[in-house]
């Protein structure tokens, strides 16, 4: 083999091993382009397929609102919220739980649901519900078919009628307490039936 034949083969081999990398402006000085992940020729990793929910399926919010620390969340069903800047005057009634973080004056009547008065809540109303949780301030009589819970930051001024009551250390309470078994004396002011004791 002659030297020119070997030199020609080496040049062909080097040209095959090194592809020329030039910028789109080949008229100027030759510049090497940097590798970019979206360049054609580089295998892009495909995005994983996302299952589509069947029609009629509930759509959940992927960015839920931040909740107030220490605020109980409704376990099931819906919950309405009265925000910090809202003032409601009149009677509230309905068939869902209620979270009050604003001001309410009048009456709250949600017999089968929970009423929660948040830390910023100020309620000047009589409350009738299945369960009442007080984290803020309440002035008015409260009647619960299940329980009343006054948390350490809470303040309740008024008479209470409930099957169970819980008052944490540091809570303020001023009023009368009437503990009734479920199903007896449903209306406030109605005396519970006297129990007979046999000797």
Structure description:
The structure is a single chain. The protein has 199 residues and is mostly beta strands. The chain has a domain at 84-179. It is built from one helix and twelve strands. The chain has one helix at residues 3-17; strands at residues 79-82, 87-93, 97-100, 103-117, 122-134, 137-139, 142-150, 155-157, 160-162, 164-167, 172-174, 177-179. Strands 1, 2, 3, 4, 5, 6, 7, 8, 9, 10, 11 and 12 form a twelve-stranded parallel beta sheet that branches. The model is unreliable at 57-75 and 188-199 (pLDDT under 50).
Topology overview:
Layout: H1 3-17, E1 79-82, E2 87-93, E3 97-100, E4 103-117, E5 122-134, E6 137-139, E7 142-150, E8 155-157, E9 160-162, E10 164-167, E11 172-174, E12 177-179
Parallel strand pairs: 1-3, 2-4, 3-4, 4-5, 5-6, 5-7, 6-8, 7-9, 7-10, 8-11, 9-12
Key traits:
single chain; 199 residues; mainly beta; twelve-stranded parallel β-sheet; 1 helix; elongated; disordered C terminus
- Report the strand count: 12
Secondary-structure element string: HEEEEEEEEEEEE
The pLDDT mean sits at 74
Shape: elongated
Q: Work out the helix count.
A: 1
Assembly state (oligomeric) = single chain
- The whole-angstrom Rg is 36 Å
What fraction, in percent, of the residue positions are helical? under 10%
Show unreliable segments. Answer: 57-75, 188-199
What gap, in angstroms, lies between the N and C termini? 129 Å
Largest sheet geometry: 12 strands, parallel
Report strand %: 35-45%
Structural class per helix/strand content?
Answer: mainly beta
């Amino acid at each position: 083999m002659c030297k020119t034949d070997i030199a020609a083969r080496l040049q062909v081999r080097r040209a095959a091993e090194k592809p020329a990398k030039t910028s789109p402006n080949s008229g100027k000085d030759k510049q090497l382009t940097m590798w970019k992940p979206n360049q054609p020729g580089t295998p892009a990793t495909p995005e994983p397929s996302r299952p589509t929910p069947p029609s009629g399926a509930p759509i959940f919010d992927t960015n839920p609102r931040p909740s107030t620390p220490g605020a109980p969340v409704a376990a099931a069903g819906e919950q309405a919220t009265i925000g910090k800047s809202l003032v409601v005057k009149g009677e509230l009634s309905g068939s869902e739980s209620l979270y009050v973080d604003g001001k309410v004056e009048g009456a709250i009547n949600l017999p089968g649901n929970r009423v929660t008065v948040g830390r910023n809540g100020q309620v000047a109303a009589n409350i009738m519900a299945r369960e009442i949780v007080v984290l803020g301030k309440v002035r008015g009589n409260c009647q619960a078919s299940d329980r009343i819970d006054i948390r350490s930051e809470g303040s309740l001024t008024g008479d209470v009628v409930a099957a169970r009551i819980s008052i944490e250390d540091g809570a303020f309470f001023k009023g009368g307490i009437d503990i009734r078994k479920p199903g007896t004396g449903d209306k406030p002011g109605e005396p519970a039936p006297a129990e007979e004791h046999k000797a």
